[in-house]
Amino acid sequence: MVMIRELQEGLFAGGSAEEMINSLFEKIRRSRLNAYNHIAEDQALERAREFDRSPWEGSLAGVPIAIKDSISTRGIETNCSSRILSGYVPPYDAHVIERLKEEGAIIIGKTNMDEFAMGTSTETSYFGPTKNPWDLDRVPGGSSGGSAAAVAAGEAPAALGSDTGGSIRGPASFCGIVGIKPTYGLVSRYGLVSYANSLEQIGPLAMDVEDAALVMEAISGHDPRDSTSVKSEGGYLSGLNGGVEGLTFGVPKEYFGEGVGEGVDPEVERSVWDAISKLEELGASWKMVSLPHTKYALAAYYIIAMSEASSNLARFDGLRYGLRLGADQDWHSTFSEIRAAGFGPEVKRRILLGTYALSAGYYGRYYLKALKVRTLIKQDFERALSSGGADLLVTPTMPFPAFKIGERIEDPLSLYMADVFTVPINLAGVPAISLPCGFADGLPIGLQIIGRHFDEVSLLRAAKAYEDATPYHEAVPKEVI
Ligand code: GLN
Description:
This protein is an alpha/beta fold. Helix content is 36%, strand content 13%. The N and C termini lie close together (10 Å). Residues 117-120, 143, 163-167, 195, 305, 419 line the site of glutamine. This is Glutamyl-tRNA(Gln) amidotransferase subunit A. Belongs to the amidase family. GatA subfamily.
């Protein structure tokens, strides 16, 4: 396994960054996972050699990081695993990439994902699915499946993903690693290719809570180029070892037994209850809470996400970015031809449904209604997490462990339903983390801890205490070369 802190110790003890990165590239080339869309070999090795000549300071000095292919990287192709963006090389870095570089990190490549982040399994990628390192016949989760598989298999010590409705936490859960969806506004979205901009955040995937906190510290904070971003108080690392004594965990009753908890795998449910007992043993208390509108979350999420997507994806007209076809025809035919050939079926489905939900006559019935439901869901979380309520909530991340490649892709609804525990968090804008809490038939199970707006400190502190008391994050998947 590759951990950020161990890598850094090696580098500070005189190890060569060039050798370390070369050995990662060696692994990636031999890998059967299809976790990467591109590796940035020339840039990464050049930067590593520079580092070896005169090492620089920074919390991530010399650390290789993999980036989801929806985050713009200057000079490195960024295509969101879509044919329509194939060949597009951004002329600028996303804010998070600038921050990683300022902290001394080395960008090693771009990871596979569901096309435009629309999916739960990384199977909608134009470049074929990524495989789960715990079982090559299974999906790694999605949409940041490439990032999660790469980290779990030791093909990167950490990675960035983006999470619109679960895309960091789901893959972290399926691959047995840690993933954080920060509070909406904590991390600048400047340079992230938008899917549903009112819901999404960039966040880290890493082998353990401390590594994830290290990356969080680097990428969070105000950026004037994203008007929704806010100043960050930080303190994620310094607050890590506070323990859980005095914290109250809320267990949403709707997520267990009847209601939205109905389709949950019994092993998943058992592992989450075991985790709750463990937290209690460590000095926390817990109580049942209620999120009464949670049953409407999936419907509201998919209407809002698809509506925003239909508007955001209008910019892909084949004239400004990527794929070019039929340039000798009139504009209208060129536009149609490029979009017909450039987008995959899931993206087309969402553009069509989103356009419908926003169209005159249906706007009030669908989109506006979904926004109202969103407010109710946000209020549910605020109530459950109010003073006198709980400090944090605990739920499963995914209702079941990783499923087989091909098993659900023909049935989009069953894929949408898999997001039942993750999408309410994006609707409410609160932060959440997924971390390993057990296994079912050798496949990892993820525990989701949810916090108050901008209270990442408590979230990370609780996750760290749980992790320190359990062995699950130490298990190594089969497919590690
Ligand atoms: N599975 C959800 C969707 O398809 C979430 C994806 C994401 O978070 N990007 O919208």
